[in-house]
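Handout, section B. The chain below has 153 residues.
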Amino acid sequence: MQNGTRYRITATRRIAAPAARVYDILADYRAGHPRILPRAFGALEVEQGGKGAGTVIRFDVKAFGRTQTVRQTVDEPEPGRVLVERDVNGPNVTTFIVERGATDNDATVTIQTEMTSRPGWLGAVERVTTRMFLRRLYKEELNNLDAIARASV
């Protein structure tokens, strides 16, 4: 998007499970990751791979009365710690960062999305509404991750 404004949405939460278990759930796009997604994300389909780097996914996002299909590639710049989803047809990038917690049985997870909005006042409105929407979704996703990671043995 030309002349747009680049911005970031971030959410962080402590997860009561070992970092390795948490990362495995996030990187598993066939069984783990789909279980933590909020209802606004739907129809997750793995087109290629399924575990970590090299995975290609497609899913729907329902927001503001519209459904948008997103296609992303997955990379692992730091396997076991950082997972990156890049939009195939756009500049948006979502990064999952898993940090070992204070003990072996907890972790801190950050979800961070970098997006580009249109320029001007419409872009300002877009940034405000998108931030509110995604922060709510990321909070739900992190809560789901905590519940699933704690239940996994």
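Note. The radius of gyration is 15 Å. Compare this with the example in section A.
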